[in-house]
Amino acid sequence: xxxxxxxxxxxxxxxxxxxxxxxxxxxxxxxxxxxxxxxxxxxxxxxxxxxxxxxxxxxxxxxxxxxxxxxxxxxxxxxxxxxxxxxxxxxxxxxxxxxxxxxxxxxxxxxxxxxxxxxxxxxxxxxxxxxxxxxxxxxxxxxxxxxxxxxxxxxxxxxxxxxxxxxxxxxxxxxxxxxxxxxxxxxxxxxxxxxxxxxxxxxxxxxxxxxxxxxxxxxxxxxxxxxxxxxxxxxxxxxxxxxxxxxxxxxxxxxxxxxxxxxxxxxxxxxxx
Length: 273
Description:
Elements: H1 2-25, H2 29-57, H3 65-87, H4 92-109, H5 124-159, H6 172-205, H7 213-235, H8 239-262
Helix pairs in contact: 1-2, 1-4, 2-3, 3-4, 3-5, 5-6, 5-8, 6-7, 7-8
């Protein structure tokens, strides 16, 4: 059942993406409403897929890299739907929906090797650890999308080459302000995710720090975002902050892919629990 729900969710995200890409060229509220609604339907089916999968496993569906990326795609989409319903920043969907589709399709080609079933995956520490990090990363993905929009808008203004997107994109101040709120909300969540991860590691491996590749990469990514927070709070906002948001989320993706596909450790697909 979860496989059918997953496929339906992916198809919905694809249709929503097509709708949002059409919206780039035709500024009509009906197109946005249709695309947002289809994405919401996809999120509901995606929720069902994750619930069915977790129920069949008897634990949180994080036994493969495929499931982890699918879960992150779900958190990202739900976060966007909530943010969009509050901000009504329609054009944001045109930059977010392609990312959601990329995450979903990428999860299909991830390794499906199961990790051994473990009671530790039922621990509340795992829920706090994964929930905090995935929500933080979803907010950083939104900041990444807003950063791309900021850089495009700034380029239009700087070169006085006002393309068709210029009147559709929000002001630099608006884009920067929303990205700022994503960052200052996401960074404490990321910190909480790392702290609960260290507590979880101490419980499982009897040491909060094990020189695991993902631990090292995650800490390095945390430092990147700590610098970004410092830049925004102490120095200011603008183009540099937008580039750091893009770079920071790229580091997150490299951390996930590197730890799960390339490097060996507790967090890799072949890692032991």
